[in-house]
């Protein structure tokens, strides 16, 4: 990939995350990259292709980095613990990733959701599916991964309201506390089934 197209993807990712697909124009991306719309169309045939490239690259690259080496962890419980720890950090530290993920869920475009599913959950299945299946053989692996994603994303976003919850403790907002809570919730849930 050329440095020009990489720069276009970087700027497009930022704008799509901030403004969504509908709120982002090829003109604004061209202006921000210091190029022309024609230059963007030289690399990407249309806005949809650019957006799908952003989704694919951003989400696959970032989840791939978070999953690196997990397949080397032989203990399923430790694998789950490490997976949750990494996903909580990814969701917290990378606002652009989080925004792209949530925007796609809310907008509901089937083609983009398919790209999201392939690039986020496909990597999860490939990397830790076998170990998680050992941990929870009676559970549907796809539903288990959706549960993991839901718990992680919700808890990271809910940190904003956590201080106002009755009985909230200061450590309820700490990433380590969230990671351990989610891990225990999942482990106790799969053991009890």
Automatic annotation (TrEMBL):
The keyword DNA-binding applies. This is TetR/AcrR family transcriptional regulator. One of its GO terms (molecular function) is DNA-binding transcription factor activity. Keywords: DNA-binding. It holds the Pfam family TetR_N. InterPro entries: Homeodomain-like_sf, HTH-type_TetR-like_transc_reg, HTH_TetR, Tet_transcr_reg_TetR-rel_C_sf. Residues 25-44 bind DNA. Residues 2-62 form the HTH tetR-type domain. PROSITE patterns: HTH_TETR_2.
